[in-house]
Specification:
9 helices, 5-stranded antiparallel β-sheet, 2 domains
């Protein structure tokens, strides 16, 4: 059973039928994990367990969505990694996207599915069509999650051809494509000057809704000039921009591209070519 399946099984076992009833502190208490909120240095959350009981200490952040994600993250550790102690930077899920720590990624997955179960979240997204950041902000209010966690969960449920990404002025920080988006599409390692995200990050120029862009602005593929995407962006953490890209249906049916960055693709997947 995957971490997400374990989290959603717990929601089902508790008979929760409305996302507004997901009281993460009460769910943790039912799992014999007491949640306390205290100042911490060097981490957002800490878990200590003895026998069948645990205490999760969460650093107050003033943003309930981030605190809830931390509680869910620590509950994931308690459910899956019992017998170990953790000091986590777990208030938002982007930190572990590029991490080489599998237990942290598993705890993030558990938390995302606990707070935004597929049975509820998938239906909410379906009602919205192709949600932009404004609609995702509404979902984050409904589910009491951060906007960042909500955007990443949008890609994770894999019902739309979406890529969520974060850039700094220097480089791509991380990306989260929906699973059915072909791996042949390789994001540029740096922002193109023609992207709306570049204008937002360097000049503060903000667009109010998603707009079409030539695919080559965002993807380095040889045939990118033949396609279009829609782009929307908002300010992220200091010096960063959060990007929402929707791919066209034609891009989903494109043949594999053997020349994408340092990676090479064949009918078995992708690999890094040896020099």
């Amino acid at each position: 059973m995957t971490p997400g399946e374990r989290a959603e099984t717990r929601i089902a076992d508790l008979g929760i039928s409305d996302p507004r009833d997901i009281d993460v502190d009460a769910i943790a208490y039912d799992a014999r994990m007491l949640v306390e909120y205290e100042a911490l240095e060097g981490c957002e959350a800490m878990l200590v367990g003895v026998g069948d009981r645990a205490i999760a200490t969460i650093r107050p952040s003033g943003v309930r969505g981030r605190e809830r994600f931390s509680v869910g993250h620590e509950l994931g550790h308690w459910e899956m990694h019992r017998g170990k102690s953790f000091a986590c930077r777990a208030d938002d899920p982007d930190r572990n996207l590029i991490s080489d720590k599998p237990r942290e990624k598993e705890a993030d997955e558990y938390s995302a599915h606990l707070l935004m179960p597929s049975v509820f979240f998938g239906a909410s997204v379906k009602d919205l069509g192709r949600p932009g950041f404004r609609e995702l902000e509404g979902l984050s209010n409904d589910y009491e999650t951060s906007l960042l966690a909500t955007a990443i969960r949008l890609a994770d449920i894999d019902t739309l051809p979406v890529v969520v990404a974060c850039y700094s002025a220097q480089s791509l920080k991380w990306s989260k494509p929906a699973k059915h988006v072909p791996r042949r599409w390789g994001l540029r390692s740096q922002l193109d000057e023609d992207s709306f995200a570049h204008g937002l990050l360097t000049a503060g120029t903000r667009i109010t809704s998603a707009r079409k862009q030539p695919c080559e602005v965002w993807f380095e593929n040889d045939d990118a000039e033949s396609y279009e995407v829609t782009e929307e962006c908002i300010p992220g953490k200091a010096g960063e921009v959060l990007v929402l890209l929707y791919l066209s249906s034609q891009m989903l049916n494109a043949r594999f591209d053997p020349n994408v960055g340092v990676r090479r693709f064949n009918d078995r997947g992708s690999y890094v070519k040896r020099r």
